[in-house]
Amino acid sequence: MNNINILKPNRENFKIFLYIGSTLVFLGIFDVFLRSFFNLNFVTFLPGIINFLFPLILGLAGLQMIRLEYSGLKSVDLINRSVNNNTFNAALTLSIIFLALLAIPPSLNWMILDANISGNTKEACAGSEGACWTYIKVWFRRFMYGMYPNEFHWRINVAFIILISFAFVGFFAKGKFKNYLTFYYAIAYPIIAFLIIYFLISGGSFGLEWVETNAWGGLSLTFIVSFFGLIFCFPLGMIFALGRRSELPMIRYISIGYIEFWRGVPLITVLFMSSVMFPMFLPADTFVDKLVRVVAAIVLFEAAYVAEVIRGGLQALPKGQYDAAKSLGMGYWKMQIFVILPQALKLVIPGIANTFLALVKDTPLIFVVGLSEVVGMLQMAKTNPKWLGYAMEGYIFASILFWAICYAMSKYSQYLELKYKTDR
Amino acid sequence: MSNNLKRVLPQIITLLLIVLIFGFFTINAQMNMSNRGIDFGYGFLGQESSFDVQFSLIEYDGSHSYARAYLVGLLNTILVSVLGIIFCTIIGIVVGIARLSPNYLIRTTAAWYVEFFRNVPLLLQIFFWYYAALRALPLPENTEPLFGVTYLTVKGYYMPGFIWENFNVLIYSILAAIISIVFIRLYAKKIQEEQGKQLPVFLISLGLLIILPVLTIITGIVQLEVELPVLKQLSKTSFIYEGGVSVPPELIALVLALSLYTATFVAECVRAGIQGISKGQKEAAASVGLTPNQILKLVVMPQALRIIIPPTTNQYLNLTKNSSLAAAIAYPDLVLVFAGTALMQTGRAIEIVSITMLTYLTLSLSISVLMNWYNKKIAIKEK
Q1: pTM of the model
Q2: Residues of B with Cβ-Cβ distance to A85 under 8 angstroms
């Protein structure tokens, strides 16, 4: 018992070490807890920096005391292995716990306890320290539908419901119809979607009032732009990927030029081009709607990225696949459609998903041509003289919105990846 | 014969189509421009620009030419990109390693960071930092100094500036240190190959790199003066810091957002690179008797870098292109100064947009050419 190093646990007395160590860790955490939640500091008698670091020192000493390999206790082993491997890791662990403890009260206060959601005017939030969710509540319709006239919001809702239900047709197709599914999704569905959006959201016929695309906005515009972006950039990208792998030099060079050009310029300049330069390239009296121009620009831009991703998949396929298809007497298109592309596309699902995510995240850029989706509407709401000073709430709302969309998309792509995974 | 036709016909048709499309566009453009009375040309670049730019690295005001304005924008873009690349690399490496940490809490925190910042649009993040986070900073007159001499205020970050005398001597001394380090390394390598002895190369290099420049300052050849920012009253309620270096809030917000966003992608590249090395490599190195540091330096890093660097350069390129979002918060970068203000004033859409796009294109293509060369150099040479 003479030569016990109090910071080095030994096996015989591990119980004592464990009790003292966990007490110290607990005291450290408890001290931070008191400091952050009740603004109490019990060790004010200590000089400045030591006072500040006191819980960390306590915790480190405690963790040092319980660090023993194969201690015989499962839970202690688990802690040692996962958060307490060495002094450095122990310090990181403690600082993360302390930071979390310190961050909880102010953020909880701001987001929930002191926050306001009642009422319909700015006065409801006056005098409170917390967030003003009333702002989000009042502006919610604008964030969703932009400047689209209030009484016509049902048209957007109905259009989206129809679009989604048409998208699910594939699940119910049986027998003979299954063969036409690719055709349906590649060609028929985009046309149907365009017609629905044109007649229902734009209006102008069937007794529906015409609504300018300038008035569209909010989350629904994000969906419309990314929806058409996704639908059209995929086949275009496929064509350029095949073109870049083509044996015909002219076609190959054109594809390379196209891909490298669009990948080399920022989207914002492409949008600039579509809004100020493109009209110069059309006959004097033609007019192409702003939204159509923007979607076209995004499609051309993203198609280059999709093409590169698909090319990666094409290159990853072993040469034997091509040889086998050719030996069966298949021509170029038959080989690509039935043998090569299905396998290549399967391989690049994660890459494609990433490109699509990038597309969705790029939609806010359409502000440069004067269209405002969610982020654009936020900027508009922020500068509204009646609602000055609530920028933070708006940004938090929008980031949660986008995060949810993108996270859901990435999870779905992981699901698809697993579903189509075939072991070779 | 028919085979030949099959090869040639599609090519001719594509070429014809493209020529037709471009011809159609050119004719229309000519018609439109003659209608509006503009003639195509880049002569306007020499004209006086007569607009001011808030933040510029080189001397510039309204009396300078449009070409100079272009240069101002380009330099500002490069400044943001370089700063962003430096910070995103640091954050990315730290987070990438943290994601592989044995520590559960560190791993999860890093994963949360990546999942969150990657899935929120960059523009939104820029707006958040600029309009929400940085606006919460105090006014210049109420600011407490940060690190004693710098001031972080709502109007920007004020740092002491350095005024050097004989600055070139300092540069020469650093260059001399670098050159001698190269020679010492070669010499050390030779010694090791011949005699098996290892020289403490790292310590020597570090010493040289510090001692030589310090020597020049001590001997008095290079002189350094520090200019501190001083609070100055402009009017009754308006204060500002003068002197030293001031960083505008737009730049801070932009660099913060760009580096935090891109770092998530860099972190994933780093993680993939480290995970891509099979355990056997480390075990083999250990069994040969290398120390953990040597394993990291001689076995793991060279192989990991081969996986990490190509996608990471891609991210750097993305960052450079994304820096064009600066226009949204009025940071005077290439897009805002040139494709924004200059275009408004001259109305020369085709020329200006094409110059802007070509600039970015040159930047991207030159980096990707460099990348391809590097890739070829480090690729595994199989026998």
Answers
A1: 0.85
A2: 102-103
